[in-house]
Backbone:
């Protein structure tokens, strides 16, 4: 671990200033992808299908923050770290509930159906959320500018500029990753999640209520997506009902890149994708092609390692 | 303790059980023998709630458990060691055992039960931090039995505990099954292809053939039965 950090710092010293700046920007974007990718991968772990509505939960998280912010600033000083944290936690709770509701209404009735049917339902849920939210009685289709949640300031390290929201993105993501690792690895419910993901039937024989664990997994993943939504909105300032489409797709790609079903893999894939996209975007000659480059690298990696960076090859059982 | 009447189970269009009836008294070891595909595992799966019964009744300690979800059946003290062991290969031995005690909230009870399991299977204690997928077949079987005992069952169902295990370990496993039955007073329903051994340790047995019970008797009598001898005991 320290060895890796040492080499990273050596490499950083050798890089030109502009590249360092891009590295920080890329890390901040990658952290957001990572938070969303974790939800895709966790749901895949327990249900073996891709919840395409996950990107929309990310969007709902950003909107929850948008509407919560003025409410919270009535009670707490606006644009303070405390009120920002309260908005974040409340948005995470709301989206956890929404994620569980989506699972209960749309996916649970299809539990014993072929996975393809659940997958198509997920696409339907995604479209339903996107177009309902675009209706003028809901959010409307026009982009809205996201309020400042925390005091805006820039930290200068030599010629490097790190905005306070970038610091918050990185710190929050790190804290959430630590919390998630703790829940999954050390708690009883996390162990049950891993047990269900390995063998649902055996888990039921232990007395584990599999439906409850699946519901909990949706809640956890959706809370992380909501955090991603708030952090994204803080960084890019504009939100709209379709913001989850492309970001959600990229986070899905990040999850596949890391090895679907693998939690550290999802985080790594997210950071990797964010870095590649930002670095390619920072080189003027190729910047219009940054998404194409990011996806080309993805295809290359999957050609060499079909199970993803950290995934294990598992022969399909027939 | 367990009373099954006219149990029918089908997988889609295929009928696996054509209405079987059997009973197990408290404290007994009862065995279910039969060829591959006779419906032995299906019987256990229907009792533990992994498959739905099409018709018939399953009454456990005076109450019907047919149609209950699997996790609620465990709650009533009925534990199932499934075919193929189904241990959680991605978890450590310790985590597997803890999952067995999922419904138990009293840490002292869990610790006490774990001590008992380590006393009958010391090998598990040596490997407590090891990832379960790296255990040998015999050790995995010990873990599967240990994990099922963690829920402190009154009734234990074992599906093919000798399958894919070194002959020397098979003997140990069967000795432990008897020990569990005698010392803990746990009633056991044992499904085995190794009919010889199963009839040795059990008091009564049922013979299943293509989804029907064709014979039932004391184990000693079944061992002498010419039909059983020629079909399941190798002449």
Residues:
């Amino acid at each position: 671990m320290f060895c890796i950090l040492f080499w990273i710092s050596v490499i950083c010293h050798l890089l030109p200033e502009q590249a360092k700046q891009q590295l920080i920007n890329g890390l901040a974007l990658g952290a957001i992808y990572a938070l969303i990718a974790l939800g895709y991968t966790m749901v895949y772990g327990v249900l073996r299908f891709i919840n395409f509505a996950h990107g929309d939960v990310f969007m709902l998280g950003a909107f929850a923050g948008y509407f919560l912010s003025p409410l919270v600033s009535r009670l707490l000083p606006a644009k303070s770290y405390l009120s920002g944290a309260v908005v974040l936690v409340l948005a995470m709770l709301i989206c956890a509930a929404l994620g569980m509701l989506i699972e209960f209404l749309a996916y649970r009735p299809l539990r014993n159906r072929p996975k393809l049917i659940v997958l198509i339902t997920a696409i339907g849920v995604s479209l339903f959320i996107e177009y309902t939210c675009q209706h003028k009685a809901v959010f409307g289709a026009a982009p809205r500018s996201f309020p400042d949640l925390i005091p805006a300031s820039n930290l200068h390290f030599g010629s490097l500029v790190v905005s306070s929201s970038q610091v918050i993105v990185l710190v929050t993501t790190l804290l959430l990753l630590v919390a998630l690792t703790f829940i999954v690895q050390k708690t009883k419910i996390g162990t049950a999640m891993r047990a269900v993901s390995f063998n649902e039937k055996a888990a039921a024989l232990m007395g584990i209520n599999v439906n409850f664990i699946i519901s909990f997994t949706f809640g956890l993943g959706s809370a992380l997506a909501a955090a991603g939504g708030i952090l994204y909105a803080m960084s890019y300032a504009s939100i709209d009902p379709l913001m989850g489409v492309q970001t959600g797709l990229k986070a899905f790609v990040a999850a596949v890149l890391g090895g679907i079903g693998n939690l550290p893999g999802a985080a790594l894939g997210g950071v990797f994708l964010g870095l590649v996209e930002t670095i390619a975007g920072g080189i003027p000659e190729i910047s219009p092609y940054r998404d194409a480059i990011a996806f080309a690298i993805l295809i290359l990696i999957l050609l060499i390692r079909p199970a993803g960076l950290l995934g294990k090859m598992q022969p399909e059982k027939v | 303790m367990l009373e099954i009447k006219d149990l029918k189970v089908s997988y889609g269009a295929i009928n696996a059980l054509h209405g079987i009836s059997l009973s197990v008294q408290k404290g007994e070891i009862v065995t279910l023998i039969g060829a591959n595909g006779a419906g032995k595992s299906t019987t256990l799966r229907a009792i533990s709630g992994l498959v739905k019964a099409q018709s018939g009744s399953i009454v456990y300690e005076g109450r019907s458990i047919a149609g209950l979800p699997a996790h609620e059946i465990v709650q009533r003290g009925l534990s199932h060691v499934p075919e193929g062991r189904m241990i959680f290969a991605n978890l450590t031995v310790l985590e597997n055992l803890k999952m067995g005690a999922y419904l138990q909230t009293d840490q002292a009870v869990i610790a006490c039960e774990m001590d008992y399991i380590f006393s009958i299977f010391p090998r598990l204690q040596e490997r407590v931090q090891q990832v379960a997928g790296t255990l040998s077949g015999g050790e995995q079987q010990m873990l599967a039995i240990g994990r099922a005992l963690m829920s402190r069952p009154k009734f234990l169902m074992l599906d093919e505990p000798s399958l894919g295990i070194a002959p020397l370990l098979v003997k140990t496993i069967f000795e432990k099954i008897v020990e569990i039955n005698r010392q803990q007073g746990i009633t056991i329903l044992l499904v085995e292809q190794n009919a010889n051994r199963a009839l040795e340790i059990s008091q009564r047995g049922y013979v299943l053939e293509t989804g029907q019970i064709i014979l039932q008797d004391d184990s000693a009598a079944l061992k002498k039965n010419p039909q059983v001898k020629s079909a399941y005991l190798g002449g």
